[in-house]
Amino acid sequence: MSPLLTTAIAVTLALYALAMVVGLLRLMRGPSAQDRVLALDFLFIVAMLVMLVLAIRYDSSMYFEGALLMALFGFVSSVALAKFLLRGEVIE
After folding, report:
1. What count of other Cβ atoms lies within 10 Å of the Cβ of residue 24?
2. What's the pLDDT tens digit per position in 24-39?
3. Which of 4, 27, 63, 82 shows a CA-CA span of 20 to 30 A to 37?
4. How far apart are CA 7 and CA 19, in angstroms?
5. Is 12 exposed, middle or buried (0-12, 13-18, 19+ CB in 10 A)?
């Protein structure tokens, strides 16, 4: 792996870590439940992106599969939480 790619991956992971800290702050301090759901969805997306960067770093397809599952579960949980906030129940 080239030194430029190694440096770019390290910088990317550091910026994603900073984004996760900001997302966690919004999750903890969000004034409403909708803000907390949005912060949780943001954390799912950033975690998925971290998995994709690690897949490039370690040249492994297992990380891609994990990122796909994380995207699926993140979407389903966001829909379930939005439905719960809207109607007060998830399963009708």
Report:
1. 14
2. 999 999 898 888 889 9
3. 63
4. 18
5. middle
